[in-house]
Amino acid sequence: MTAVHREAESGSRNGLPSEERTDHYPTRLDHAIEPIPRHEPVVWGGAADGPLSQPHLDGFSEYGYLVAPETVSDDWLPLLRHELDRIAADLDADDPRVIREPGGTIRSIFEPHLLSDLVAQVVRLDTVLPVAQQLLGGDVYIHQARINLMPGFTGTGFYWHSDFETWHAEDGMPEIRAVSCSIALTENYPYNGSLMVIPGSHQTFYPCVGATPEDNHGTSLVAQNIGVPDQTTLTKAVDEHDIHQFTGPPGTALWFDANLLHGSGSNITPLPRSNVFLVFNSVDNALTDPFAAKRPRPEYLAARDAQAVT
């Protein structure tokens, strides 16, 4: 197991002096190092702890993802689509929570659960919150939430990456104990930029080369160039694990582990794709100082108040 001890300028982390923090997942390095086996379990709860059966938990542990049909029922979908339009219209053009494509169309809107009572209700649905609590083994909080929009013709993709790599390097998430829930609000076809995952890649952390630029989030949310594996590493991962693609009707949720390699192509079809994206983190995995950045990202990208969702 590769681990390094890092010192910070000040502060403490989870009650430990800064200089005592051990980093099990060094990244943003000046040279390449070997991939690192995962340090933590994938599933923290059991079949008795929530709605997922043991086969579902076993599948999530093995593949790093789970498709959950009808997470949001049909009667919610028109309301949520309308709410997306309302949120986009109400926010100022220069609101930092609004991320735009190079051509000006909206790519993502962060903190929708704080901007919309309806989205906040989705977080607490019986088909959502108990699943997160079961997978992570107890109380959870929202580390990050956003609406992703991929309009027809102009929506650009997301390059291959592990979310945990960024959350660890730039936000200070100590361990891999977070899970994402992407709820489709439109049909996900194989050809309109739907998400692709490398099943099983969540069991390995792939350190990345290249120091974190100042205020990296200003550009990485549009096109991520730092914190992504090199092509040789990705080729080996795909050779070993293959690629799966998430498709399905509106209301379907894709749950996936924080360390699962995933990405999407651009949408050159007339068919838009949108989703509500919720990231749950264990309250026992609260953020510390960044492991590979000078300062934390803004609160709307990485909540530092680990108050449990109830």
TrEMBL record:
Cofactor entry: Fe(2+)
Keyword field: Dioxygenase, Iron, Metal-binding, Oxidoreductase
Coiled-coil features, chain-numbered ranges: none
Gene3D superfamilies, per database record: q2cbj1_9rhob like domain
Compositionally biased intervals (Basic and acidic residues): 1-10, 18-31
Catalyzed reactions per annotation: L-ectoine + 2-oxoglutarate + O2 = 5-hydroxyectoine + succinate + CO2
Pfam families xrefs: PhyH (PF05721)
Stretch list, region Disordered: 1-31
MF (Gene Ontology): 2-oxoglutarate-dependent dioxygenase activity; iron ion binding
Top-rank EC class of the record's enzyme: oxidoreductase
EC number in record: 1.14.11.55
The keyword rRNA processing appears for this protein: no
Protein family: Belongs to the PhyH family. EctD subfamily.
Function, as annotated: Involved in the biosynthesis of 5-hydroxyectoine, called compatible solute, which helps organisms to survive extreme osmotic stress by acting as a highly soluble organic osmolyte. Catalyzes the 2-oxoglutarate-dependent selective hydroxylation of L-ectoine to yield (4S,5S)-5-hydroxyectoine.
Subunit structure: Homodimer.
Protein name, per record: Ectoine hydroxylase
Provenance organism: Mycolicibacterium peregrinum (Mycobacterium peregrinum)
Higher taxonomy: Bacteria, Bacillati, Actinomycetota, Actinomycetes, Mycobacteriales
